[in-house]
């Protein structure tokens, strides 16, 4: 690995998961259903017709999983809370048994000296709120702020960081734009209105959490990419500019500039969201950190059929182009465009068709992927971007949304029949890499 790849001593190294993808315990101890529980009831929605009822059974195995995390030498663990576990219908009474699970998880993490980075919403809206209109209903933003307040009040001094949302782009565009994700709606206008309510809910939650005066760093996690024109043609360049405005700036501008990007607003035309007076003030709250999830770039081709990305470094099992330099380019561009708070790379990793053989899992592709992205991250830091941490996605193989269990993102292999965990070579590599970082 690149010898210059030494990071600041206080850089945070972690692994990441999310509730629905690993917990299971779908109706344990009073948990209410979420929109993903409902979405999985229609087997056509999930490629392998699976669901999250058991997943990695983390709900019952969290102690062993925290020991596993600890064995990897990481400083921090990023996970999400299942809202419907702690508030079964998304409004009204709190479920103490649900909070009890996260209380025990936090105890385990503290006992192993692992910092907790909590995400409030990783796509699993309580079905009760969906029944009231979900994120299309503006009131959900207020319900979310109440939930955020309660979590910060209870746990805000026991976690290092709280992120409001994970990838609201996905909640809006895959959940409401093309029906690939729960709740399975395909309606461009609704998707844009939903994105506004998600942003509003983020801002209201920042304010409600600040009121608890908790010590946690508060922020949001956005999936981001650069948008590259496939060729130098005017049409491709225009498409790339619009794509960047609709995906990256659409979420960044309201938070950092208190407005939507003109180019995207114009393109949305009649589908532009209904925005109330004061919404941008509510949204543009100062944040303590920005989480960036990076997997690939957007490759924009206006031709028919569109040109496909060259993939000089190959493609992952998701079909995603491996393009580490995009991480450098993205971070440097964001740094030039916005007054950024400290950044954490809250997700980065790859799916690979891994299998256990002789008690081992050889995944050299994943090791190379992570190394290349860490080099790219270092390059951005050398250009002045203030990055404070990196979280590998994911700790465990898990329920990869509409791909079910067929796509393996873990650095730890999970046998879903036995729930046996096996460290992949990438986990051993990461562990040793982190131990070398510490010995400097
Ligand atoms: C991100 C999600 C995460 C996981 C990875 C592969 O978009 O946040 O849950 O599915 O992709």
Automatic annotation (TrEMBL):
NCBIfam families: BGL. The keyword Hydrolase applies. Coiled coil: none annotated. This is Beta-glucosidase. The active site is at residue 347. It catalyses: Hydrolysis of terminal, non-reducing beta-D-glucosyl residues with release of beta-D-glucose. It comes from Massilia frigida. Keywords: Carbohydrate metabolism, Cellulose degradation, Glycosidase, Hydrolase, Polysaccharide degradation. InterPro entries: GH, GH_1_N_CS, Glyco_hydro_1, Glyco_hydro_1_AS, Glyco_hydro_1_beta-glucosidase. Belongs to the glycosyl hydrolase 1 family. Its EC number is 3.2.1.21. The lineage of its organism: Bacteria, Pseudomonadati, Pseudomonadota, Betaproteobacteria, Burkholderiales.
């Amino acid at each position: 690995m690149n010898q210059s790849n030494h990071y600041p001593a206080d850089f945070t190294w972690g692994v990441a998961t999310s509730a629905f993808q690993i917990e299971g315990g779908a109706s344990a101890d009073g948990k209410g259903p979420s929109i993903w529980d409902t979405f999985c009831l229609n087997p056509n929605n999930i490629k392998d017709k699976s669901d999250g009822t058991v997943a990695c059974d983390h709900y019952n195995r969290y102690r062993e999983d925290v020991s596993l995390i600890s064995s990897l030498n990481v400083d921090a663990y990023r996970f999400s809370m299942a809202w419907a576990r702690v508030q079964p219908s998304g409004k009204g009474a709190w479920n103490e048994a649900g909070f009890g699970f996260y209380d025990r998880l936090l105890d385990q993490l503290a006992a192993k000296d692992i910092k907790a980075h909590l995400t409030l919403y990783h796509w699993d809206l309580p079905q009760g709120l969906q029944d009231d209109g979900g994120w299309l209903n503006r009131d959900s933003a207020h319900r979310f702020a109440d939930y955020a307040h309660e979590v910060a009040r209870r746990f805000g001094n026991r976690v290092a960081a709280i992120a409001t949302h994970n990838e609201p782009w996905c909640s809006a565009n895959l959940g409401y734009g093309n029906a690939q994700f729960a709740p399975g709606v395909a309606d461009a206008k609704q998707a844009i209105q939903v994105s506004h309510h998600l942003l509003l809910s983020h801002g209201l939650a920042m304010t409600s959490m600040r009121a608890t005066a908790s010590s946690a760093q508060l922020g949001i996690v956005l999936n981001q990419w650069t948008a590259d024109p496939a060729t130098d043609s005017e049409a491709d360049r225009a498409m790339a500019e619009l794509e960047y405005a609709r995906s990256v700036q659409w979420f960044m501008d309201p938070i950092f500039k208190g407005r939507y990007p003109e180019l995207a607003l114009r393109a949305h035309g009649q589908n532009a969201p209904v925005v109330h007076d004061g919404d941008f003030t509510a949204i543009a709250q100062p944040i303590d950190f920005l989480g960036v999830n990076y997997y690939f770039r957007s490759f924009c081709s206006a031709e028919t059929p569109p040109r496909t990305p060259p993939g000089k470094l190959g493609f992952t099992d998701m079909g995603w182009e491996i393009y580490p330099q995009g991480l450098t380019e993205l971070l440097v561009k964001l740094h030039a465009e916005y007054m950024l708070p400290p950044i954490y790379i809250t997700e980065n990793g790859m799916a690979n068709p891994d299998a256990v053989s002789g008690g081992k899992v050889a995944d050299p592709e994943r090791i190379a992927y992570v190394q290349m992205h860490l080099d790219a991250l270092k390059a951005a830091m050398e250009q002045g971007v203030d990055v404070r941490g990196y979280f590998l996605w994911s700790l465990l193989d898990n329920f990869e949304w509409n791909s079910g269990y067929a796509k393996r993102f873990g650095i730890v292999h999970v046998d879903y029949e036995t729930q046996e965990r096996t460290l992949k070579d990438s986990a051993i590599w990461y562990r040793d890499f982190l131990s070398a970082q510490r010995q400097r």
